[in-house]
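Q: Joint fold for the lines below.
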Amino acid sequence: MNYVYFDHAATTGVDPRVFARMEPYFSEFYGNASEIHGPGRKAREAVEWGRAAVAQALGANEKEIVFTSGGTEADNMALIGYAQRFSGGHIITSAVEHPAVMESARFLQRQGWDVTFVPVDQYGAVDVDAYRAAFRDDTRLASVMLANNVVGTLQPVAELARIAHDQGVAFHTDAVQVAGSLPIDVDELGVDMLSISGHKIYAPKGIGALYVRKGTRIGPILHGGGHERRLRSGTENVPGIVGIGAALELAVAEMSATRPRLEQLRDKVVAATLATIDEVQLLGDAVNRLPGNACFSIRYIEGESMLLQLDGKGIAVSSGSACASGSLEPSHVILAMGFGAEEAHGSLRLTLGRENTEAEIDYFLEVFPPIVEHLRKMSPLYVKG
Ligand SMILES: Cc1ncc(COP(=O)(O)O)c(C=O)c1O
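A: Joint structure:
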């Protein structure tokens, strides 16, 4: 694919080194991991290797990892699986969660649960006082993402988990955008459950995992043969499990080199964009953000128009409204940060990955300002001051 790809928060390609590890499990070692014959044992060995690799990368115990079909299922399992223990109650989450958490919470709301969506500040960080004040006697679970997928802001999850535990409440975090980019240690974070997804970290689509701390009781949301610790039924995706394990291993091994490089590229694109285009704003926290995320609001023009013009130049980016695929609704994240619909519509997100180069950033910086100028000329809203 001859594209400059700046949409790694949406998905990544499978790293060839990861693919090489997975390949034998498609057609050579294709046994069902539940069978006790040789091919089954070979598959089981691979599943347990993947589990150990994921556990190691998260600072968890192998017994605490449940494989799922991705981040969405892990989030559903955390909220809905945990809620099953109770006949009802109250859940706390944030106003900027990914739909996988947001809609799981709304599903529970329709089942009679109360849900508080805690507000965020203008940078997308959860209002810790409002969060603390939201706890009630019947609060059962709090779930706040480790980093936001649209604006990249990191949340103070260790503090939020501590506050929840002080109230005797379990805590889940969606770490889908953080795994592989920044170090994760479930004990340092103090979380009870944590979701990750393969396709954001150079493993394939269709595999993810939920970390469930020992002693945290949850129920299944998929019913059947009980393959994964009786919590998740469905024949194990052996190549996917090997893939997510290998991808995490690689990401952790290379993080000390990848992270500063991405931060430097991100800072370059942010500084140059703010310097060369007027009426543009960086969305999210300037410092406390994901290494590869640069998200802007560019006034008077639509994110989708910019996206399509950049696409014409062979550059793949996302508008802030992405992730609800194909949706032209303004991003609920940007609205929750206090911006108006017009600013939300003018959002553009670049998410960099480890294969991106400085030359690609330079190419973007060369073609983007004329695109903005061209679109603004056509915008009835824009009057150059
Ligand atoms: C923060 C976050 N959570 C959950 C998901 C869903 O993960 P998956 O695509 O593996 O279902 C995504 C994907 O965009 C995400 O960014």
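Q: Anything notable?
A: Residues 238-276 form the longest helix (39 residues). The chain has two domains: 4-10+255-378, 16-250.
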